[in-house]
Every structure is written in structure tokens, then in C-alpha cells.
Write a sequence for this structure.
């Protein structure tokens, strides 16, 4: 089943804002077996919205989802355009108007200066809906709509509000409504599997897929997409449930060919994997970061519950901070420079010591755009993982990262997380090789 | 002049990735006076790409910009589709093939396992271009193209590669080429002004714009867009140079009505403004953050040269870290709780002290989704700014932030940066009121 998405917003077409609704809707629609063939962004302009609806219908969409243009003001015009396109007149839905008025009431009290007449007009406007449409209860103030056409073989239009916080729950509740349920009954839901790899170029995955085909694996039922994202390669496969075995065989093939590089085959992020490894060992982590300025800490605390394994961090941007907080000897910095293997090691050990953690990470590098030299160019980052477990003593390496200041900083945190994973895996397997549980010491 | 954008990529239409090229191209095209009316995302599929080109032409686009589908493999089909649409046959451009081969050579050496025949085929594919097209030199391996149509009144198509790092410089160099120069000579470039406000609801700006109109300001020549972004309101105006005075009058009106809330009228971010205020006073800043886990540090070090004013930070996620690193008395945490006015103050002062900075910031809050209580719900964040300048003693407040864990964390850093601005402005103006330069002390 084909679908299409129309995202309205002058701020999008002006390039002022990235759209988040298109990708979210696309992924949900794909899972339901109604993958969109197009996502169109247009200004909040009735002519453009109408043109986009017509285009998607001509392209064969059976379901069109719109986002935005449901606000209380006169320039929010999506409902009127959709009603006209679907051949339906508009009427004021009185109970809905009362419902919206009740939602707006607290706002009116909080801001007593608001214009009461304008507010009432806005409420009436938002409660004016096409005849024969299914109304979806507001999450914010705007109701959503499911609008069938009076014409035969015309697409069903699902009208949703622009704020993602409203759109997402409303989409889910729309799925339970009659018109969408019966339309989607004819679609074939698809599964999605994601493999994450780190440490090989994207072209190598293309080569692996070719090899898999050459060796007789049937990939024809798998829609495979590969992307480079924050330094990791993401291989996503969408497939009908009947192709589950084809998918499993492909996963096994990739796992065999890239045993070190494939780090996730169930959608878990590197942050989640590092968290699990730390929890498995009962270890806590502490960090000392220079050029990344807090980004590694931010990633390590993205997941709820991170206080169970993240002890804290030192943002040691200045040399004085490296010395005072992480205990890096001034002499070491003077001899090797702040961006050096030695200082990265001292930062990792210093972080673990200062915060009483079993695992320490140190990052020091040149994020640019200035500050590079021939010997130490922009993009050079030294990263060290310190394990105070008495097992293998950790891991220190340098990387030369391409791109902008933002790219270098972000990529450095990705490399650091993968180094933590490698060090912890080695420590765990060493522990297992001894037949003993992973050793622990207070560091 | 109307333009349109086609962004190709199965990963976009599947919702796996957000598109960055559409917004970037849209903003550049708007500045050139060729604002796009639509941005269309389609899969890497010749039929879909062709359909999107036809739609944009029918909608009146004089210029179409495509992004993506220029890779070396057979499934990258943008060039063939554009050539057909523009009525042009394809030919191998031998010098271009040599140029691409030279670019690919180092890659071949780095990965000796790569298939040489496949590599050569890819090079030939990328050097196969439409007759009569202008070739844009590769930034990565893919050349760009400017393809005029053999039909009259058909749009010019600018074909660009997908990676933003390649697309952006190539777009700029394309502007210097003959076909685009003469097409855009007929366009009216537009200026863009951005106002940033903090601390009022978005509806208040709508009200201000209505008032401005009521009081006789002519806003008809200004295309005004308002957006809420990371807790700040961004008001962007695009206008022809002739409307410069209208724009200036609007800025003055908004500045008069929102003197405290309008913090930037020249596009400078809050990070840049805080940096300038610190540099103006010759002060350094240090931070101690709990729930934000490093995000404030990351924002304070986003700008190159931040080492001139950012001393460092403490990520004090655990109570033990709050005590050990920021010197918060255990007794204070026990009495008031880790999320409290008292602990926020102690963190701010402790950060300044530990890092020898004149300005300290402390953040402690409940980012959720768990850990909230009736008294201290998820979203409650205490933020404190400590000034060890002997002037006004700083600023401490709590906020109740809505949304997800990510929203709360991000929004808290925005509030903190604005509190630093307020505290520094007050300190600077107090210093000026004395007729003396802003006082300084080592804290």
C-alpha cells in the first residue's frame, strides 16, 4: 500500500527548521505496511497544500498524512484545504468547541492579558471540521481529523497537528479508529531489524552484501538501507514476516564476516551496551574530557538510570583544570603537550581516582578550526580507557577525525564509547578465561 | 523566482535519517531570491525522482536542485533520470574519469582488498554525464552537474551530491558558473534578519505583531516566521533590500515592548553573547552540573576559542561527586535534598572555587522519566549563578520544565545560559553606575 506525507510549515520551506514529523511518520507507516513514496514539505499556503495533496493522489497514494496548520489563527488552513479536496463542507462541531474551550481555559487564566474575543474565535475555528470526518481528540488544543473523500478511489487523509508531542500520540490513537483500521487491514505490516557496526568504511558493507548474494543468500525480500551516523554504520532491513529466515541468515553472515565490528543486532545503542557491560561487572565509570567539553558526559547520562554506573566527570578544558582536577602533572603536559598519549592516560586514571570509579576515560584533542600544527593537526584526538580492575590495563589510542569542530567533537565521543566497550569486553572475557568472575578492586 | 528541491534517499523516505540538505538549500535559495515552494523527499528510485521533477516543473519552478544519488554504484540513478527529463543523452567524459580515478587512488591503496574492476566501473559511471551539462568539480568523488533542458521554458536542474560536506561547497561554486549566474540575475536577493527572545510564550509575539500592525507599522513587505527552538523564540524576517526601513521599525517596536526578553537582534546565539560578556569583563566561567550531565559544558565549548573564558566543569551526577568535587557539604544534601536551592548555590560557588573562575554555575534537577515526587516533580531544575566579583551576588531560581528527559536537560542548559547573561549584565551595569570599570576579584 502506498502512502504520502505532507508536512506544512513556512519555517521548513525557509530552511529555518528541520522537520521531525516526516521521518517519524515514515517509519511508523513503513512498519504498518504503508510506506510513503514521498514526503513533501510546503509552506502554510492553501494553494501549495492543495497541490501537494493532488500530486500524492496522482502518484497513487491510498493514505495521505498531513502535519501542521491546525492552529487557532486564520493562517492555519490545512483543514479547509483538505475538506475542499475531499469534497466536504465545513461545520462547527459544538461539543468539540466546548472541549477545546475547556482546554484553553487554564491558559486564559495564566495570561489574563490575552484577548478573549480572539481566543473564542480561535476555539470556533479549531472546532470547525469537515462533514463526515472522524474527529481525533486534541492532545494540545488542536483536534486531528480523518477525512474520507466523496470521490471513489481517492485517498483517505489523516490530518495531524505539527508539534511532535501532539502528533505522535494522536497518530497512535488514529490507528484504532474505524476508517484507518479498515484501510490498513489491506496492508502487510513489516518488521525492521537494525545492525550497527563500528570501525569499517561504508563501502565494506556494500561489499559484504554483494558477497552474501554471491554465496547464495536470498536478499530479494529484504529492503536494506545503510547509513553512516555519528561514525557508526547502521544497516536497516525492512521485511515481511515471511522473510524472517532470510533476515536471520543475513545477520549471521554479517556477524561471521565482521565479528569485531558488529556491535549491535537488536537496536541497542553503544550507550546502552556500555551501560549493560558496566552493570554486568558492577563497575562505575568516570571521565575527564577536554576537547569534547562535556559531550561524552552528556551521552553517558542520556539514558534514565545512568546514576547506577556513571559516577561523574571532569571537564578539563584548561591545563590548570587538568592539573587541579585530574591530577595530571604539569611537567607531563610541558613535556608531551596537552594533546598526547601520556596526558590522555593521566586523565583517564585521574578521573577514575578523583571519582572513585573502576573505569576512567580521558579525552584530549584538537577540535579546531584553529590550534592545529603539522605534528598535531586539527582532528587529532587521544583517547584513553583506564581499568583499575587489575586485569588488562586498559586501552589508549589516537584518531585523526575529519570534518568540522562539531564533527570532531561528536565523533571523538563515539570512538571513546567504543573503546570503553572493547576494554570492558576484554576484561570480562579475561575474567571468564580464568574461570573466575571478573575481578574487582576499588582502584 | 520559484525553485524546488528534490532530496533523494531511501533512508529518508524510510524515516531512518533526518534530511539536512533540504533546509540548508532552502535557506540559501531564499537569500538568493529563489525561495523553494516545495521540498520533496523520495526514495532512490528513478520513477519517483522523475515524478518529483515533473511535479516541480508543473508547479512553476525555474530552478530545481537535487541532492543525492550520485554514487558509483548502479542504484545511484539521479543523473540518468535528470538527463532523460532534460532531453539529453549521456556520454563518458574522459578527462573527468581521469580526475575521479586520481581521487579514488588513495582509497584503493588504503584498502588493498577492494575490487579493482568494480572501482573502475564506478569511476566510469560517475564520469558519465549529460551532453551539454556544466560539470562541477568533485568535492568528494562525485561531480555535480548543471543540466539545462532542450525544451523551452523548462527549469534548469542543479544536481548535487548527498553528503552535506560535499553539497555545500559545491552549491557555492555552482553559483559562479555561467548557467546559474544568468538564471539568478533575474532573481531579487533577499535579506534576512533574526530576533531571538527568551522568557515569553510564542503567542505573545503573535500579539506583538498584531499590535505593531494596529499602530501603523507596515509589515506587508516582511515575511515573518516565528519558531520555538530549545526554549527560545526565534523571529525571522526575510525582505527585499527596499524594505530595510520596515524591518528596522519592527525591530525597534519589539525591542521597546520586550526589552528584557529580546536578547539578540543580529543572529548571535546565547552562547556567543555569554562569551562576549565574559570576555568584556575578563572573567572566566566554571560549571558544576548534575542532571544535564555535561550538556552545559558542551554548549559553552561549542564556539572556537572558548578556552579564553571557559575554565572547566564538574559533572557531579552522584552525591559523592557533589561532595568530593564541588565541596557541597553532605549535611546540606541530607537536609535539603540534592535537588534544592541550597545545593544549586553550593554547586555554583564550588565550581568557581574549584576551578578558580569568577563566574560559577550550578545545575541540579530531576530530568526523569523517574525520580519525581509530588514535592519535587520530574522537570524541576534548580539553577544558580555565582559571581565572585563582590558586586551583586548572583542569581538562583527553579524552573519546572515540560517534556521528555532530553527536553528537560536541553531546556535547563538554555535557562542556565540566560541566567548567566542576566547576572553578567547586572554586574556590568552596576559597575557602570559607579562610573568605574567592572570590579574584579579572584574569588
Amino acid at each position: 500500500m502506498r502512502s504520502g506525507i505532507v508536512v506544512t510549515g513556512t519555517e521548513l520551506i525557509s530552511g529555518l527548521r528541520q522537520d521531525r514529523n516526516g521521518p517519524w511518520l515514515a517509519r511508523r507507516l513503513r512498519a504498518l505496511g504503508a510506506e510513503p513514496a514521498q514526503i513533501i514539505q510546503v509552506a502554510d499556503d492553501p494553494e501549495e497544500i492543495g497541490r501537494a495533496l493532488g500530486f500524492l493522489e496522482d502518484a497513487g497514494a491510498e493514505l495521505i498524512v498531513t502535519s501542521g496548520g491546525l492552529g487557532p489563527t486564520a493562517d492555519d488552513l490545512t483543514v479547509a484545504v483538505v475538506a475542499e479536496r475531499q469534497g466536504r463542507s465545513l461545520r462547527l462541531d459544538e461539543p468539540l468547541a466546548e472541549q477545546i474551550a475547556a482546554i484553553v481555559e487554564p491558559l486564559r487564566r495564566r495570561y489574563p492579558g490575552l484577548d478573549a474575543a480572539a481566543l473564542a474565535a480561535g476555539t470556533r475555528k479549531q472546532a470547525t471540521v469537515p462533514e463526515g470526518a472522524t474527529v481525533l481528540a486534541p492532545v494540545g488544543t488542536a483536534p486531528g481529523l480523518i477525512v474520507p473523500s466523496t470521490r471513489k478511489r481517492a485517498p483517505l487523509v489523516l490530518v495531524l497537528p505539527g508539534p511532535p508531542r501532539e502528533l505522535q500520540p494522536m497518530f497512535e490513537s488514529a490507528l484504532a479508529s474505524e476508517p484507518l483500521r479498515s484501510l490498513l487491514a489491506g496492508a502487510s505490516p513489516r518488521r525492521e531489524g537494525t545492525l550497527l557496526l563500528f570501525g569499517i568504511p561504508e563501502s565494506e558493507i556494500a561489499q559484504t552484501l554483494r558477497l552474501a548474494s554471491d554465496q547464495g543468500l536470498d536478499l530479494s525480500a529484504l529492503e536494506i538501507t545503510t547509513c553512516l551516523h555519528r561514525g557508526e554504520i547502521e544497516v536497516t532491513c525492512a521485511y515481511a514476516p515471511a522473510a524472517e529466515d532470510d533476515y536471520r541468515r543475513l545477520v549471521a553472515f554479517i556477524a561471521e564476516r565482521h565479528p569485531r565490528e558488529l556491535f549491535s543486532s537488536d537496536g541497542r545503542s553503544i550507550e546502552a551496551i556500555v551501560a549493560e557491560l558496566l552493570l554486568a561487572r558492577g563497575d562505575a565509570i568516570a571521565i575527564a574530557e577536554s576537547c569534547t567539553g562535556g559531550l561524552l558526559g552528556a551521552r553517558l547520562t542520556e539514558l534514565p538510570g545512568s546514576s547506577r554506573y556513571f559516577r561523574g566527570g571532569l571537564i578539563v578544558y584548561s591545563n590548570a583544570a587538568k592539573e587541579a582536577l585530574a591530577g595530571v602533572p604539569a611537567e607531563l603536559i610541558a613535556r608531551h603537550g596537552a594533546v598526547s598519549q601520556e596526558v590522555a592516560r593521566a586523565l583517564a586514571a585521574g578521573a577514575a581516582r578523583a571519582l572513585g570509579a573502576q573505569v576512567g576515560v580521558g579525552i584530549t584533542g584538537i577540535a579546531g578550526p584553529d590550534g592545529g600544527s603539522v605534528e598535531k593537526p586539527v582532528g587529532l584526538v587521544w583517547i584513553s580507557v583506564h581499568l583499575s580492575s587489575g586485569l588488562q590495563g586498559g586501552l589508549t589510542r589516537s584518531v585523526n577525525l575529519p570534518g568540522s569542530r562539531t564533527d570532531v567533537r561528536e565523533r571523538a565521543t563515539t570512538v571513546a564509547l567504543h573503546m570503553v566497550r572493547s576494554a570492558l569486553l576484554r576484561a570480562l572475557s579475561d575474567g571468564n578465561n580464568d574461570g573466575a568472575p571478573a575481578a574487582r578492586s576499588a582502584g
Chain A touches chain B through 92 residues (CB under 8 Å). The first strand of chain A starts at residue 3 and ends at 8.
